[in-house]
Structure formats: C-alpha cells, structure tokens
Amino acid sequence: MIYQKTFTFFIYTFFIVLTQSVDIQAQSILTQKADSLFNAKDYLQATIAYEDLIAKHDINKRNAFVKMAFMAEQHGNFPKAIYYLSELYELSPNDELFDKINKIAKENGYGGFERTDFNFLITFYKQYYFYIVIILLLLAIFTLYYSFQKKSTNVVFPKRYAFLSLFVCLFALLVTNLPSTYNLGIVKAKEAFMRDAPSSGSELIGRINEGNRVNIIGKKDIWYQILWQRRVIYIKESDLWVING
User: Fold this and answer.
1) What pLDDT is recorded for position 19?
2) Does the domain at residues 2-109 carry the CATH identifier 3.40.50.1370?
C-alpha cells in the first residue's frame, strides 16, 4: 500500500514537471518568434505575438511592454503607446517613464495624467502591496490579541483602544480589497459615452475622446464605474483599456 502511494506520488510529480517543461519550451519558441518579428520590423504581427504571450504565459512583461510601446508610437497609435507605457509604469514606477507618458499626453491633448498625491499613493501601495497588507494584518491581530488578553484578566479595556482595534481591522479589510476596486484606464474608443447609470438608455453626461486617462472605482456588468470631475459616471468596458501592470 505504501509503495503504491509512493509510486502514484512520483507519477503525479513527473507529469507536473513534464507539463511545466513543455509550457516553458513553447513559451521560449513563441518569445523567439515575437522577437524575430520585432527585429524584422513587422510591428503589427509582433504586437499580436507579444499580447498573446502576456495573456497566456508568464513572461518578462517589462521587455514586452517597452517593445509594444515603441511599435505603437512608430505607427502613430499614441493612445495605445500610452497604455503600454502606463502598464510598464505600474510594474516599475520611475520619473523618466512618468515624464515620457506626460510628454505624449501633452503633445496629443490627452487629459487625466497629472501627478496627484492620490495616484502616487495608489501606485506606491500597489508596488508594495504584499508588505503593507502583512504589516496591517499583523497589527490587527496584535490589537485583537491584546484586547482579549485584557478581557481575560478582568482588566478594564479603555473604549478608545477598543475603537482603535476595530478601526485597524476595518482599515486592513479595506486595504486588502483596494486593488480589486480601483484601477486606471485609458480610453480606447474614438469617442466614449459617459452615462449617469450602467445602462445604454440612461442619461448621457458627456463624451470623452481616446487617449484620456480615467479613474476606475468599480464595475457593474459591462460598465466601468468612473470617478470623473467629483462625480460617478459609467463607461462601457469595451471603450477602455484597464491598466493592471
């Protein structure tokens, strides 16, 4: 019985390793193909190849985004160039890249790229998400443990500390869910409609042109919830590129 379980374990492990090896080999071939198309200046097919690699394989995204941004800029597709550069900025924030994005935006009249304290904090948070969440969770656990210890020893626990413990726990919960509710997006439609509700029959608030950047705070069905000029509006998901990094 023990030998049978051991044999089954080794067979299972072998197939996992074999599958991963085949995937890595296929990824290497596809990467070489994409690089070859890029070097041959077949930018359209190279972009398709890199996008397919990013969607289906765990590749070096930084290298791919740099090349795709360059190709989009060469073709005069500045909204997509900004999108690729923004994806790169999410992975590796730096002033040089920020200035490059803003230069393209200003030259083409795109809005929403101003450096705000809020967007800086969001970028910083996403970059160090794991460490921030761990620290907050440890702090929440410590405050809860401390409060229960005081209660078990019949020591009066001041209300202000109880409220502090509750606040830390709620804040940790909010922070851990922030990445799924907040993102940046680039308008890819020539002209996207902004509506006051997630419906094509709702009131039209206005229009926004391609290349502009918006703050996404949620999603309902096929509609993104956008914070625009201090009010919440809705834009169809098909009209936006979402920056995920």
Assistant:
1) 43
2) no
